[in-house]
Every structure is written in structure tokens, then in C-alpha cells.
Amino acid sequence: MGPTMQGSRQPVATTLTSTRPWAPVSSRIASKSPALPRAMQDGRGCSAGRSLMQTKTNFRGFPARAIGAPDPGVRGGGRHRSLPAVTEVGAGMVRSGGKSPWVLLDLDGTVLDYDRAEREAVLATLAGVGLPADGDMVARYRQVNARHWSALERGATTAARLRTERWAELLAETVPERTGDIDLGALASAYVANLAAGAYLLPAAAEVVAELAGTHRIAYITNGLADVQRPRLAATSLADLGEVLIISDEVGAAKPAAAIFEAALSAMGEPDPRTVTMVGDSLSADIAGGRAIGFPTVWVARAQQPDPTDPALRPDRRITAIGELPGVLRG
Fold first, then answer.
1. How far apart are CA 119 and CA 140, in angstroms?
2. What's the burial of 20, exposed, middle or buried (CB within 10 Å: 0-12/13-18/19+)?
3. How far apart are CA 4 and CA 68, in angstroms?
4. What is the per-residue pLDDT for 232?
5. What confidence score (pLDDT) does residue 40 get?
6. Interior angle at CA 279, CA 1 and CA 156, nearest 5
7. What is d(CA 188, CA 150) in angstroms, rounded to the nearest whole number?
8. pLDDT band at residue 99, thresholds of 50, 70 and 90?
9. Is residue 227 included in any domain, yes or no?
10. What is the pLDDT of residues 289-331, one digit of tens each?
């Protein structure tokens, strides 16, 4: 995340409202100051130079900076719709809500096709510096990357370290002779740009979330880098259907830590956790974290995955495709 910001300035939340229900937000921006997780109150988790100060904008209410704006280094960046920078992680996106229950959706592996986006990004990044770009290198990268993300979830590393250290480890394992002539920072930035362009939905995701939006309020929560997740979500139809987006990179805590779920609850207006259904594909991040905070949980499992034996990882419901979710929520 970079150096910790100093000071005790309280972020000012921005709530976007509309003159008519479920309409694109354009009428006004109203400010208020809700209770925030302590990690957000004292500035932890904010990268150096990235405050949560308010910026006026004229499009969706995704929180924080440069939400979907084209990045000069992002392949196909011109196709990303410009989204606004507002003050607080998790501020309202597009729609004013009623009293409907919430669905809190994980992104990658639940509604977004991360496997495809990652594969294309790894191949493009490796090819860009003249390294072997093939399936074996993708597999090796995924092994290394999984270790680093696991460390992040345990609090043993930071997003800033993860960006470069996963590439340093991959190069050391596969092409040690090239480690001295490759700029890790540039390599990591190229990968983030390539990955940010991979906005692919999983089958039926768009239809399912659109259906749920008629009966539930939609929020998204993701362990990821803001520079990657914002443009990916912004380039899909899901951006128009949600009200809250929570990214670990911005909160300073990753699922399953309580702080990221507390940030989500704060952004949703402090609903009873029992009215918020957490839906995700990771037992350790989505299900364990959701259960600990008091959410009902739905696990989107791969068909061959066995049911967990650890009670802390046991979901309330199991599905094997996102298309089953509306039926589960209807009971």
C-alpha cells in the first residue's frame, strides 16, 4: 500500500442520490460523515499521495480516484468509461435504494472471468519484454501469484510489495539470467495495465445480477488492486447495477479480515448483517470472512470441489454456477 499516511483527519463520505428511484445519479452530491472502520479513520491503508478528499465528478459514484478513466498505459484504455473520484471507499454508485436486502458479490471467479483476463495479461506482459510467453509460464506465474495473494490475505505482505515481488520470484525461478536486465517496476506496471483491460464476464453473470437488482441492492467486494478492478468493472454492464464497490487495495485490508467487511457495512448504511448475503468463490476469503461478520453466505464452488469440513469455512448454501443464485435467494 505504500507508506502510511499521517494524521487523524476524518474522511468525509459522499452519498450520491437521485431524484427518482433507480435512476442514474446526476442530480446532486450530499455529504455526510458515517462511522468508518478504525483503519480508515486514522488513515491506515491509504497509499502515499492518495487521500480520500472529495473530487467533484459528473458520472457514476464509484469511490476513490480514477475509477475507470483510461490509463495511458492500459491496452484499449479508450474503451473504459470514465468514472468519478469521490471521497470514500464504498460510496454509492448509481442507484438509490429502498429497504431491499443486500447481495454482496465477490468479483473474480464469481462474476468476472479472472482466469481469462490473467492468462491474456501474463502472456502480453512476458512477450513485451522478450520472455517466453506460453502456457507453462502462465502456470508458473499462477503458482507464484497464489502464494503472494495468500500472504496478503494473512497480512504478511502489502499490495505494493505484491506488485513487484511476485514478478521477482517468477523471474528468479524461470529465467534467472534475465533478472538483472528487467525493470521490475515497469514489468509490474505493464502487467497491471494489461490485466485492467481484461473485462470479461462469466457466463450468465450479467443476466443474474440484472435479475437480482430488481429485488435486492447490489454491492461488490474484491481483494484486488484498484488500478485493475475499477476499469474492469467499469467496462461491464455490472457497473450500472451496483451501489457499492469495496476494494482491498483502498481499504487497507483484504478478505477475510473484518475491516474490509466493516467498510462494506459502513458504505451500505449499516444494515443488519443478517440481511446481507455474501456470495463468492473463495472459502478462505469470502465464506470465512462473511461468516465471521454475521452474513449468510453462498459459495460458488467448482463442481469437483469437496465440501469443507472446517465449520468456519462452511457456507449456508453451495452452488456450482452463478445462474443458480436467484433461486437460492428466493428460498
1. 11
2. exposed
3. 25
4. 98
5. 32
6. 30
7. 18
8. low
9. yes
10. 999 999 999 999 998 899 999 999 999 999 999 999 999 999 8
Residues 72 and 215 occupy one common structural domain:
yes
Decide if 5 is inside a domain: no
Among candidates 277, 115, 79, 111, which has minimal Cα distance to 207? 111
Are 183 and 210 within one domain?
no
pLDDT surpasses 50 at 95? no
pLDDT at 110: 98
| Domain limits for position 320 | 13-111+199-330
Domain termination site, one of 196, 218, 245: 196
What CATH number should be reported for the domain holding residue 57? 3.40.50.1000
Find out whether 208 and 99 touch, Cβ atoms under 8 Å.
no
Shared domain for 217 and 266, answered yes or no, is yes
- This prediction has a pTM of 0.73
Q: Find the CATH number of the domain harbouring 151.
A: 1.10.150.240
pLDDT in tens, 183-239: 999 999 999 999 999 999 999 999 999 999 999 999 999 999 999 999 999 999 999
| Rounded Cα–Cα distance for residues 239 and 88 (Å) | 17
Contacts of 111 (CB under 8 A, 6+ apart): 105, 201, 202, 205, 208, 209, 238, 322
For residue 44, give the H/E element and its range.
none
Residue 4 lies in a domain: no
Cα 170 to Cα 45, 131, 138, 152, distances in angstroms = 27, 11, 10, 17
Exposure string (b/e) for 49-75, b if CB count within 10 Å is 16 or more?
Answer: ebbbebeebebbbbbbbbbbbbbeebb
Average pLDDT, the chain: 77
Cell 497480512 belongs to: 155
- pLDDT of 90 > 60? The answer is no
Decide if 51 contacts 80 (C-beta within 8 A).
no
- Rounded CA gap, 94 and 65, in Å? 16
Q: Is 141 helix (H, G, I), strand (E, B) or coil?
A: helix
